[in-house]
Amino acid sequence: MAFIELDRVSKRYGAFYANRDISFAVEQGRLFGVLGPNGAGKTTLLRMITRILLPDEGTIFFAGEPLAQHHQRRIGYVPEERGLYKNLTVLDNLRYFGQLKGLSSTEATRRALWWLQRMDAHGWEKKKIRELSKGMSQKVQFIVSVLHDPPLLVLDEPFSGLDPLNAQVFLDVIAELRAKGTTILFSTHVMEQVEQLCDDIVLINRGRIVESGSLRQIKARYGIRRLELAFDGDETFLQEFDGISIAERRNGSLSIELSGGIEQAQRIIARALAHGTVRRAECIEPTLREIFIETVRRTETEEVAA
């Protein structure tokens, strides 16, 4: 069942469309990535899903119901620009925001202390937000978003400014939340984290969807692009194949760029076996980074041509 669904959603400012005719569904318990270059409309889209902004056209559904104000208590949101009170302490911030989401002061305090411990932030309770580094503030903002145990968590660039150690803390906690059934949407520019975390993605450029689906489906559509071949023998047989190029040679291995996908790779491997010893052969799918760059460039070229 779709936990979040967007049906032909658009948001415009005057004649400019920040999002245009956006439709997709996020299944319950899935981790969904919203990707796109700077200015693509990702933040606007997330703000509509959290009902900070309202769409000008189309409908957003939350657990089968049109998104309404009362659903906001069931959503946790980490904005790209942090929204903490700098002159209040960490614990006062957490207690205040917890109460806004319906927790009692006592329960908000109990949960805040537990989350500070979990996020390796024990002992920060009396620190004022203005005394914290960007990464430390980011941890507090994340705790604000999960304190009320929301079934939907929306994260806008959650890893921005984090060092590798703290980024791993976030990754671990996100994995724990996903395992317990939380539906998570997040935007990021770090493609490696998307490949590590996401079940499904939507790629937006200039306010429109240009690619969407599960990571498996998307990579299958782009096919095999490269063959890594560790080969001992005469490699002149490769001249028989049109549309290939050797991108790299190293330590007896060849990195071969393909134009004919898995079928071409299989033919090359068969010929290599006939001409020498194949120590290793691996068909390489394009990375999400490569798909991202190719898709954005293609759609921008198409728009210019139109």
Give the beta-strand count: 14
Q: Report the biggest beta sheet as strand number plus sense, adding barrel if it closes.
A: 6 strands, mixed
Q: Which structural class do you get from the secondary structure elements?
A: alpha/beta
Name the CATH superfamily classification of the largest domain: P-loop containing nucleotide triphosphate hydrolases
CATH class (first level) name of the largest domain: Alpha Beta
Question: How many distinct helices?
Answer: 9
Number of domains: 2
Which spans have pLDDT < 50 for at least 5 consecutive residues?
Answer: none
What CATH calls the topology of the largest domain is Rossmann fold
CATH architecture of the largest domain: 3-Layer(aba) Sandwich
Helix content: 25-40%
Main sheet: strand order: 6-7-8-3-9-10
Shape category: elongated
Secondary-structure topology with pairs:
Elements: E1 2-13, E2 16-27, E3 31-35, H1 42-49, E4 57-62, E5 65-66, E6 75-78, H2 90-100, H3 105-118, H4 134-146, E7 152-156, H5 164-179, E8 183-187, H6 191-197, E9 200-205, E10 208-214, H7 215-222, E11 226-233, E12 245-250, E13 253-257, H8 261-275, E14 276-284, H9 288-305
Parallel strand pairs: 3-8, 3-9, 6-7, 7-8
Antiparallel strand pairs: 1-2, 1-4, 4-5, 9-10, 11-13, 11-14, 12-13
Helix pairs in contact: 2-3
